[in-house]
Design brief:
Elements: H1 21-54, H2 84-98, H3 102-119, H4 125-142, H5 147-171, H6 185-197, H7 208-232, H8 234-249, H9 257-266, H10 272-276, H11 278-287, H12 289-310, H13 315-332, H14 357-369, H15 371-374, H16 379-393, H17 398-404, H18 409-427, H19 456-460, H20 464-469, H21 472-478, E1 482-488, H22 491-496, H23 498-501, H24 509-517, E2 524-525, H25 527-532, H26 537-540, H27 548-552, E3 562-565, H28 566-579, E4 583-590, H29 597-602, E5 608-613, E6 616-622, E7 627-628, H30 642-645, E8 653-654, E9 665-666
Parallel strand pairs: 2-9
Antiparallel strand pairs: 1-3, 1-4, 3-8, 4-5, 5-6, 6-7
Length: 667
């Protein structure tokens, strides 16, 4: 990546000297400095959405919300009563940037976690990652007496969490629809990336077809490679993570710069030696001209490409590039200088690295990311072998790691990240805001994941007999099965449904041409964004997505049918009733035995017709006989349990003509 880059021996040549008071003080100072650098990078991430709004910059699609939006009921969010973003979070971020002290940082992280919880579930998935990593900081700082002690507790915990979270995002790409180029988000996103780069690098067009066909395995491979390399050789892992996130920043429409800057700001935890001597790192990196020029030129070219694609540079992208330059210079800085001391990423706090790390990472990636594309039946044994090898190559075997950290913050933090990253979608406790981003995951009605089931609670309680035998609160939350929404004129339901969330026509023209040439459907739905930007069209319109007008004005009652769990229909009806406008709705309950979009679309069951006025129910009838609905009819039930609405936000599954049984790309 960088001219003149050196690879050091993976183990020290001689044992470290015995510690004494002087080295303890030096170590405390280094730990303090490393945590202070992390804190300043963290503050820059917090300031990005404020800067974009203050300077009216067209920002990232997924920037952290700093308005008073709330989907959980009128006045149900604290933010509706008190502007803690501008009045508390912003001053705290500025203060911590200048004076990164333990108590001040504890308060800033705590306010961030509270703000995240206040807006759940209408938050971006990476915001859950951030909250999971900020909560251990609160615990570490609250139980420590100094910055150095906080660093020793927090930094290892956060490193373990981030590796686990990256693995979880890659894991959820192992679905049949992700590896089917006709449906895959990978082909949609690759076409979008190529449409932005081809005008700037015309020879790339000759490779576009190949890259589209290779996209599922290629993108999944990169997502598995990032955490594997962070585990085996952190310096190279940081570089690969920056490349991965910068490709996201180059998306002309799906510019998820919020995710990119959030992860970029936190990569510093994998370079603690550079963090402990940030100013010295910059001086030494700049002092070696060939390396400094190479790193600076790389960032300068990338900046020019971003401006050419987006027409400007927002705070998210600008801060990302500035931090990337620091990372490049810290890794490019020589291992030793005239005084014999190590610098950059190579100081005393340098993390352990494994020999032949790149080869080991490539072997692991080949075993887990390629078989689903080449030989799906071999996915399970190949993934098992890849995971086993990675466990053997890791700095510490997972079982030994678990035993060593069973009672400390690192173990608890890693367990929390694993539970969030893997168990939520399996159980059906979380869909949006989980680590399934862009994975083409079928969250209910049967799983399309190649290794694990999904939506277990919804499936188990779909049968009336099972729901009757379960506790009432569990049946109320997850029972009712699936329903097909056949027709509605509700502006709320339409804005959250197929037409209101479709982004296909907003993709660049060249991207649509590439998708057509690769026999991909090209259908792209922003169900996630439609929910997170619900009643926030003014905010949506400031992003690179520019689809707010279509979403806000979606009132076509001929919208294609779609399927949702009973829970989501109850949640959406509560939103429609809160708006206080008349609407009608037709839906069909689906038998539990049906499990594919083709079956759901073909099913001819008894429809339920609902008509409501602004002040309440007009009529509810079932079937052709138009019998009055019973009190237990789904549309007449109260909203789902409040606590569950703070966690669960399901994706609809559109039922499109001739679309087959795959899951189209949704975000």
């Amino acid at each position: 990546f960088v001219p003149g880059y050196q690879v050091l021996p993976t183990r020290p040549a001689a044992p470290a000297p015995a510690p004494h008071a002087g080295t303890d003080m030096q170590s405390d100072a280094q730990q303090h400095a490393a945590l202070a650098t992390y804190a300043r990078f963290w503050c820059l991430h917090q300031l990005a959405p404020f800067a974009d709004q203050a300077f009216a910059l067209a920002g990232a699609m997924d920037h952290r919300m700093i308005d008073e939006s709330c989907q959980t009921g009128p006045g149900a969010c604290l933010r509706a009563h008190f502007d803690y973003d501008w009045l508390v979070r912003l001053p705290l971020a500025l203060a911590c940037l200048l004076f990164p002290g333990r108590r001040l940082l504890l308060l800033a992280h705590l306010v961030n976690v509270v703000g995240w919880a206040d807006r759940m579930p209408a938050v971006w998935d990476y915001m859950c990652w951030c909250a999971l990593m900020e909560a251990p900081f609160v615990l570490a700082a609250a139980t420590s007496s100094s910055m150095a002690e906080t660093a020793r507790k927090f930094l290892p915990a956060m490193r373990a969490q981030l590796v686990v979270l990256y693995f979880s995002a890659a894991f959820w790409k192992l679905t049949s629809s992700w590896y089917d180029g006709h449906y895959s988000c990978s082909t949609v996103l690759m076409s979008e990336l190529l449409s932005g780069l081809e005008p700037l690098f015309p020879p790339l067009a000759t490779l576009s077809g190949l890259m589209l066909h290779a996209a599922p395995a290629l993108v999944a491979g990169i997502e598995f490679a990032v955490p594997a390399l962070l585990l085996l050789q952190p310096r190279h892992g940081v570089l690969l993570a920056l490349v991965f996130h910068q490709t996201i920043n180059l998306m002309p429409a799906t510019y998820a710069g919020g995710f990119s800057i959030a992860m970029c700001a936190r990569q510093i935890i994998f370079l603690p030696a550079a963090a402990a001597g940030a100013s010295a790192t910059l001086r030494r990196g700049v002092g070696f001209a060939p390396r400094a020029v190479g790193a600076t030129a790389l960032v300068a070219v990338t900046t020019g490409v971003m401006v050419a694609i987006h027409g400007s540079l927002d705070a998210h992208g600008g801060i990302f590039l500035a931090l990337a330059l620091f990372y490049f210079l810290s890794i490019a800085a020589p291992a030793g200088g005239g005084g014999g001391g190590a610098s950059g990423a190579y100081g005393h706090l340098r993390l352990e690295e494994q020999p032949h790390a790149v080869a080991k990472m490539a072997t692991f990636v080949a075993l887990v990311a390629v078989p689903p594309a080449a030989l799906p039946a071999a996915t399970l044994p190949c993934c098992g072998l890849g995971v086993a090898l990675l466990c053997l190559w890791a700095p510490r075997f997972p079982l030994r790691f678990a035993l060593a950290h069973a009672t400390d913050l690192t173990g608890a933090a890693a367990a929390a990240a694993a539970a969030y990253g893997f168990l939520g979608p399996v159980l059906g406790l979380q869909m949006m805001a989980s680590s399934t981003m862009y994975g083409n995951v079928k969250n209910y009605g049967g799983s399309n994941h190649l290794l694990v089931p999904t939506g277990l609670l919804q499936t188990a309680l779909a049968e009336q007999s099972s729901a009757a035998a379960a506790p009432a609160w569990l049946s109320d939350a997850f029972g009712g099965g699936l329903v097909r929404i056949d027709a509605t004129n509700s502006s709320v339901l339409l804005s959250l449904a197929v037409g209101g969330a479709e982004m296909t026509d907003k993709l660049p023209l060249r991207a649509r041409e590439l998708l057509s040439s690769a026999n991909a459907s090209g259908r792209y739905f922003e169900f996630y964004a439609a929910r997170n930007y619900y009643e926030r069209s003014y905010d949506h319109d400031k992003t690179a997505l520019h689809a707010a007008a279509a979403a806000a004005g979606a009132t076509d009652s001929s919208d294609p049918a779609y399927v949702v769990p009973a829970y989501e229909l109850r949640r959406s009806l509560a939103l429609a009733r809160r708006r206080g406008e008349p609407f009608s709705l037709e839906y069909t309950p689906l038998p539990p035995g049906l499990g594919t979009p083709t079956q759901w679309r073909a099913h001819a069951g008894e429809k339920v017709s609902l008509d409501e006025a602004a002040d309440g129910l007009v009529s509810c009838v079932v079937g052709r006989a138009r019998e009055a609905c019973g009190a237990a009819e789904l549309a007449l039930l109260p909203p789902p349990p409040w606590l569950l609405t703070r966690v669960l936000l399901p994706y609809p599954i559109p039922l499109l003509d001739g679309a087959g049984d795959g899951i189209h790309c949704t975000t």
